[in-house]
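FAQ
Q: What does a multi-component entry look like?
A: The components come first, one per line:
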Amino acid sequence: MTVLDITRPSPASAITSFLYRVDGSASWKVGTAHIIASVSGPIEVNKRDELPDVATLEIVVRPDVGVTSTREQFLQDRIRRVVAPVIALELHPRTLIQIVVQIVQSGDNKILNTISLSASINATYMALLDAGVPLRSTVSATSIIYYTTATSDASKTNVLVDPTRAQLEQIEKDITSVHTIAYELKGGKIERLLLSESVGSFTEDQVFECYDTAANICEETNRTMREAITKGVQQKSRWREA
Amino acid sequence: MPRDLTPSTIENTFVLKALTERTRLDSRSFNQLRDLDISFSSTDYGVVDVKLGRTRVIARISAEITQPYADRPYDGLFIISTEISPMAAPTFEAGRKSEDELVISRIIEKSIRRSGALDTEALCIISGEKCWAIRADVHFLDHDGGLMDAACIAVSAGLLHFRRPDITIVGVGSRREVILHPITERVPVPLAVLHVPICVTFSFFDVRKASAAIAGLPGKDNMKEADDDDVEEENDSSTTVLVDATLQEELLRHGYMSVTANTNREICQIQKGGDMPVEVGKLLSCAEAAIMVAEKVTKLINKRLKEDEARRNVGNLLVEARAENDR
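Then the predicted structure of the entire assembly, as tokens:
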């Protein structure tokens, strides 16, 4: 499979541990998207939501503007699919792990959800790490968009990874397919595919091409996360040096 | 219950004892606000991040074109949403309005919407057909008391910062069309903000009640003598007033009053709650104090707005776009 040579348009940046009332918090910025995720847990659960052998996982997604709609329900469902297998829920039965994802700036246009989704997954994962929830492996996600250009070679497709809103607006009418991909990583290397959401019209080759591109991007994202966590831990442990 | 915010008895008595000794836990004076930080997004208009001590709130202002209400054809719409998510504190349940939320929502409504901070008539495009609907969404990220105050500052600052797309109406009569100009084509237009409401919350503590709570603890002889002589002469000394309470102080207060004021020395709204009667002189001086806080905070908002404009306006391009003459 060919691996596309993509230069990532904008680097991602992350901050952790900035909220005081929750156990873990993370802010993920990529392109024009800015997502803040918080994790509280394991904490006390309502009797009716209690599960006897595993922790209950509650994920709340709040939009940047407007009332909560089916879009947030979709995001919540996809985030759950990625994150639930990675958390060791069986270690904390009859408790609640509460995740809140606040979209500050979505980075998407009106019809797409891909950038909010991939950024939310990354933010959620970092918040889980910050909260010290037991996890089985590392997760990272990315968005890949295929679009045609109005050049003489009309069949040529181009690719954007984690685009900014300005870039999205430019290519809006020419988007052919949109892919959100999340991988599980161990030791900084791709292990398993956790999420593959593809919308639009695309070939089988394009999908596999996507998986390979996403693999490289996700490994890079993993490195970014590592740096952010290292910085966070150094910050928290600075009392040791005194 | 770990999801309950109620602090322990030890914490309560410590805070109250400190108050009887004229000390706050963060060593602020009784009428001092916490560190206030206001920052705007460098990419989007109308995104404000407000930090009041540890309390953190983000407001997002957005605009949409819609049809006005049938009974108000000359007015646009202005909606404020203040839903609190479990991110602010795990005690808040997603999808269920807590009592605090109702109070905050009502006070923000009165402070900003009902006081006419935003001129809704200026939002009319074609009367009876099209108007702007301005939406303010407040996201509460961290709860350390003063959610109302932070939210009010955030929305006020957001309304001043936000720019809506410019529009042109072409054609006449029933064939009129509204052209919406994207921000890349035409410089966006600020909203008509008539005044800047700033909310300040005062927390009341009944010193006698507080002393009674501490009485019976070991070491009470070390405590300052409650002003038994003074109580009969001046009622004032039995009421302690704190400005901008932290969450801990909020949970312990016996009463509160929220005053929203602006730099025109106008009071936009007053709400007094809790179970404690407070004598009038104290309340009036609180209102005075609120006006001073409003002036300070408005000055800070304007300062940050200027800094943000300077950052965006690199090369003075916006100056070229303005048609105003220098006066």
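Q: Is there any commentary attached?
A: Sometimes. For this entry: The domain at 35-168+177-194 of chain B is CATH 3.30.230.70 (Ribosomal Protein S5; domain 2).
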